[in-house]
Write the structure tokens for this entry.
Amino acid sequence: MHEPVHVVGAGLAGPEAAMQLASAGLACVLHEMRPVARTPAHQTDLIGELVCSNSLKTETPGSAPWLLKEELRRMGSACMQAAAEARIPGGTALTVDRGQFAAAVTDMVEAEPLINVRRGEVTGLPDDPMQVWIIATGPLTSDSLAASIASQTGQDRLFFYDAISPIVDAESVDMTVAYCASRYGNSLDGSADYVNCPLSREQYERFVEALLGASQHQSHDFDNPNYFEGCLPIEEIAKRGPHTLRFGPMRPVGLRDPRTGQSAYAVVQLRQEDARSGSYNLVGFQNHLKYGEQRRVLRMIPGLERAEFLRYGQIHRNTYINAPALLRRTLQWRQRPNIFFAGQISGVEGYVESIATGLMAGRNAARLALGLEPLAWPDETAHGSLCRYICGASPRGYQPANITFDLLPRPSPELLRRFRRRKRERRMRQCQLGLAALERFLNAHPRAA
Ligand SMILES: Cc1cc2nc3c(=O)[nH]c(=O)nc-3n(C[C@H](O)[C@H](O)[C@H](O)COP(=O)(O)OP(=O)(O)OC[C@H]3O[C@@H](n4cnc5c(N)ncnc54)[C@H](O)[C@@H]3O)c2cc1C
């Protein structure tokens, strides 16, 4: 008889992990603090509550969110089964009735004899190295557990807020306008590290005016935007004066267009992220604007007129660890491999990404408890790509990720050549390769399936 595995948090990652453990024949204790203690966002005591939107993103085949969901379905995800039961019409998105979804997840968990749901707050990380634990307490992890994680991982490795800059598809940047250069020509390897979008005085003034007039997301009380002095949203910087952005994230000093030798009135810098291929981050452009407004205003930047946004900027309350500094690709904490992290606290963003890390942590925790080596999912899969990003990105200024195509491996030169002007077909092909890699992986490791 094995010791039960402990899973903390019954949002999305936690119940998925618990159901995976049960399907491997392992007993588990699923700890949930609601209703004994509450979070500022959850409204019910149900397991699997969706705190905001009821969309699990697009179901369009050939898109990255579809690939992630399709992989989950092929691995027998309990939450995907609940989503299918609770599905309501929502165009191309997988949209669910929130109440029905949570009721279906709750019923599944409660009907599972191997899962013991324990209501109450877990206030600290466990000490016993022989017990296997999964921490899946989400973006609103309780203060006492957060304090315990921070004290054991290092205070600088647990974050409480997200300040996310937008990401654009590199192919959608107009390189006849933008140019590559590093500030003052400084670059560690001699390459021009940044793509720079130059603005004339007139373009800058129009941009600032549009930014100040754009509508913002409504914040929740606990998403206090005044909190970030070192990481202000661009619209807040713009409010401080007409030139403040030019002395902040849009400063042009040390940058010259190599084609003309000229410097611009203001510059927006784009940077390729280490673990992302084919996309650029708008450096220092975290913001609170509604997504449609971001698209409209940021497309006023020369070179970004046709930018395809892979991720929009956001600022919100979010508890998450510095995964690249702490986790193995198996989602085990390097320092104490009997502890796994899953869900939003592990450094991913979004409902389905949380379910996906819950599934992987659950299966790997089962393997560990059974005396088997935990596994890393293949790079070609959306699951493997998510883990590769959260564990392999730069720990400096780490930002959580949704699944997008730039997290998947760069397509082979042959694929790029064959589908040069047919991006949709190329992506469909990449998805097929991912699903084939998943099938090989599941066949090679039947006990993880
Ligand atoms: C206000 C808000 C809106 C959001 N909107 C969206 C959205 O529209 N779309 C989207 O994709 N994502 C959204 N997110 C992100 C979303 O929270 C995650 O995608 C998803 O819920 C994370 O799943 P999880 O399992 O990691 O955490 P959660 O779903 O938050 O589950 C964590 C669970 O752990 C419990 N818990 C916390 N601390 C303890 C403790 N110490 N002991 C025991 N239990 C504990 C909590 O009560 C909770 O039930 C939003 C987040 C917030 C805060």
User: Anything to note?
Assistant: The chain has 13 helices and 16 strands. The CA atoms of residues 129 and 289 lie 45 Å apart.
